[in-house]
């Protein structure tokens, strides 16, 4: 059985767990999310997306 989860959902669960169990302040998580949002509008976005896709493919075992 294959389960498909969006990466944003997985990252949301990790953020929630960090706030709940590691004591990360909510404002720190918001600042990190905003930084990622603003970073996505820079020239680095294609490299970040490519690296993320490559990492997910390695974890999933997809090799083209």
Description:
It comes from Streptomyces vastus. By secondary structure, the protein is mainly alpha-helical. The protein has helices spanning 7-21, 26-39, 45-60.
Give the end-to-end Cα distance, rounded to a whole number of Å.
22 Å
Shape field: flat
Mean of pLDDT: 86
The radius of gyration computed from the alpha-carbon positions, rounded to a whole number of angstroms, is 14 Å
Number of helices: 3
Q: Quick one: how many beta strands?
A: 0
Percentage of β-strand residues: under 5%
Q: Ranges with pLDDT <50 over ≥5 residues?
A: none
Helix content: over 70%
Quick recap of the structure?
The chain crosses the membrane at residues 27-45. With 64 residues, the protein is mostly helical.
Q: What is the topological layout?
A:
Blueprint: H1 7-21, H2 26-39, H3 45-60
List keywords for this structure.
membrane; DUF4175 domain-containing protein; transmembrane helix; transmembrane; 64 residues; mainly alpha
């Amino acid at each position: 059985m294959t389960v498909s989860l969006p990466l944003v959902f997985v990252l949301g669960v990790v953020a929630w767990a960090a706030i709940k169990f590691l004591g990360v302040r909510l404002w720190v998580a918001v600042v990190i999310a905003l930084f990622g949002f603003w970073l996505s509008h820079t020239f680095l976005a294609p490299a970040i997306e490519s690296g993320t896709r490559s990492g997910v493919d390695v974890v999933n075992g997809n090799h083209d």
